[in-house]
Write a structure and sequence with these properties.
This protein is α/β, with parallel strands linked by helices and 559 residues long. It has two domains: 351 residues, ANL, N-terminal domain (Rossmann fold, 3-Layer(aba) Sandwich); 102 residues, GMP Synthetase, Chain A, domain 3. It has 16 helices and 27 strands. A nine-stranded mixed beta sheet has the order 4-3-13-12-14-15-16-17-18, with helices on both faces. A seven-stranded mixed beta sheet has the order 9-8-7-5-6-10-11, sandwiched between helices. α2 runs antiparallel to α3 and α3 packs across α4. The longest helix is centred in the first third of the chain and has 17 residues. The protein starts with a helix and ends in an 8-residue tail after the last helix. The protein binds adenosine-5'-diphosphate. Adenosine-5'-diphosphate binds next to β16, β21 and β22.
């Protein structure tokens, strides 16, 4: 029999039909992300936050200032009638003010909803109304976008323009005020509220290539857990200076705005200027040691360095994700710049980090070729994220490096359901289907073969459009490549390769085919190569393959 003392610890667990459980004695943890910026102020007050402003000028702040200004913003919002659970939007660039909004809005209990300025206007209207945004903080250059949309926005009470009082533009936006005026009389001693368990913190919408965009509502707890896990799953050092090219408006900038201050890291933000030259300057001037970004941004930076004989001498590591890393990019970072590349994978529904590919001790003894083959994989799951690969009927496939199927994920920073949806987005056991087709191997590495919607089915076999694109990208004349499956009367689908060359002019198709022929199986070789001046990209910079698929859908059928 249990003593009275022990009995008081026991709860009856209905799900386990009578099983008993003992509860721990530790404190109840209901985190508020504002605790992160308070920690940074306390421990790393003078660590710098560098931003390139819209004007091009470099602005220097630090964790102490950002924390105090976040408190002022939170109190200004409260004074303005914003309540816990209200949704407040940002249409902003990577600067210190955006960081302050992350903390000021979420920290007072409202929800930070980040908007992407590249959204199609119709999608922007849908998202702002669906989220029921009450206020929009808007960067100066985007004021005209909102002026054009404001008649269709149902709930917006105020527009706060991210500028000084004297920089306020003439605008037709209702109740427009400058950010600096808005926070001027805010309370620098503001005390952050204690929030409910699982309180909502931030909201991001997926790009919605089919149907309407869907919202993912992150909690304070999921963001804190994700940030702590991210810190352990990348080679981050306390003295790193981070270049944050990944936008604060896309999937919470991969958690950097939370784990940066957690660890007192210097943050360097490029604002509007993400081309090769200004990025190089910023890296050089601010001694950037760790850079986060998507492959297309790095392609611009590498091209600038190549053409101007520049070396990224301060950079030690770069974390690349969002789309697949190519061998050519990896090689150039490694062999020309001595920069270690860490491939990472994730998605909006996962806060976003799922896997990272950090160097292992074994890799030190490998040949470059062997090492590159591992680095090109999307990596191994971070503790907290579970992965499995299933066939079309949902049966789990072996982790053998060969069996390819639907990648399913589960974990504390992975969504349960989309914002305002009636039903869960996960199966009965909590697994979320990522929409990616992948292979898992014996060592725990995951390799993405394709998006399920992009995989090419030719003669009953699968061709990976990603592998083919990466192979083509290695050709010295190829600046960008995209492979799409086009319906075919005999083979079901055949790959078509779209290329943007360095010069913008077509090159000999034979030279491309010859280049590919020892890199991929013969039946993978594209039947058709089309040279374009540019490829269609979506609001988050990803290739919009459906546009090309639609345009060329009858190409083989008509032949
Ligand atoms: P979206 O809003 O388009 O869903 P996400 O950033 O959430 O934007 O996109 C997630 C998807 O991006 C993943 O499911 C995967 O297909 C792709 N992706 C992300 N990182 C990688 C990577 N390292 N390699 C290949 N694909 C990637």
């Amino acid at each position: 029999m249990l003593s009275n003392n022990v009995a008081s610890y026991i709860i009856y667990n209905k799900q386990d039909k009578g099983a008993i459980q003992m509860i721990g004695d530790m404190q109840k943890w209901t985190p508020n992300v504002a605790g992160i910026i308070e920690h940074a102020k306390e421990i790393h007050p003078q660590t710098e936050i560098i931003s390139r402003l819209v004007s091009g000028e470099i602005h220097r702040s630090n964790y102490e200032k950002v924390c105090i200004r976040s408190r002022k913003l939170a109190s200004a919002l409260e004074k303005d009638g914003i309540k816990k659970g209200d949704v407040v939007a940002t249409l902003a660039l990577n600067t210190y003010r955006h960081l302050e909004m992350y903390y000021g809005i979420s920290g007072m209990g409202a929800v930070t909803h980040t908007l992407n300025f590249r959204l199609h206007p119709e999608q922007a209207v849908y998202i702002i109304n669906h989220a029921e945004d009450k206020i929009i903080f808007v960067e100066l250059p985007f004021v005209p976008i909102l002026e054009g949309l404001q008649d269709k926005l149902n709930n917006i009470q105020k527009y706060i323009v991210l500028c000084e009082e004297h920089e306020m533009p003439e605008t037709s936006l209702n109740n427009a005020i400058s950010y600096e005026e808005y926070i001027k009389d805010g309370d620098a001693e503001y005390k952050w509220p204690i929030l409910d368990d699982d309180a909502a913190c931030a909201l991001c919408y997926t790009s919605g290539t089919t149907g309407n965009p869907k919202g993912v509502l992150y909690s304070h707890k999921s963001n804190v857990l994700h940030a702590q896990a991210a810190l352990t799953a990348m080679t981050i050092q306390p003295d790193d200076s981070i270049l944050m090219v990944v936008p604060l408006f896309h999937v919470l900038a991969w958690g950097i705005p939370y784990f940066g201050p957690m660890n007192g890291l210097k943050l360097v933000m490029p604002g509007m200027q993400m081309e090769g030259e200004p990025l190089y300057e910023l890296i050089d001037q601010e001694d950037v040691s760790l850079a986060f970004g998507v492959p297309t941004i790095w392609m611009g930076l590498l091209a600038y360095c190549r053409e101007n004989n520049k070396i990224l001498s301060s950079v030690k590591n770069t974390i690349i994700g969002g789309s697949a890393l190519s061998l050519a990019t990896l090689q150039e970072f490694d062999e020309v710049h001595d920069v270690n590349v860490i491939h990472a994978w994730g998605m909006t529904e996962m806060s976003p980090l799922g896997t990272t590919n950090v160097p292992t001790p074994e890799m030190q003894n490998m040949s470059k070729e062997e090492k590159y083959a591992i680095q090109l994989k999307q990596g191994r799951p971070i503790y907290g994220v579970e992965l499995k690969v299933v066939d079309d009927s949902g049966n789990e496939l072996p982790k053998d490096g060969k069996s390819q199927g639907h990648l399913m994920v589960r974990g504390p920073w992975i969504l349960q359901k989309y914002f305002k949806a009636d039903k869960d987005a996960v199966d009965a056991d909590g697994w979320f289907d990522t929409g990616d087709i992948s292979v898992l191997d014996e060592d725990g590495y995951m390799t993405i073969k394709d998006r399920a919607k992009d995989v090419i089915k030719s003669g009953g076999e699968w061709i990976s459009s990603i592998d083919l694109e990466n192979a083509a990208f290695g050709h010295p004349e190829v600046a960008e490549a995209c492979v799409v499956g086009i319906p075919h009367p005999k083979w079901d689908e055949r790959p078509m390769l779209f290329i943007v060359t360095n010069s913008g002019e077509p090159v000999e198709k034979k030279s491309i085919i010859d280049f590919l022929s020892d890199k991929v199986a013969k039946w993978w070789l594209p039947d058709e190569i089309v040279f374009l001046k540019e490829l269609p990209h979506g609001a988050t910079g990803k290739l919009q393959k459906f546009e090309l698929r639609e345009e060329y859908s009858n190409h083989y059928m008509e032949k």
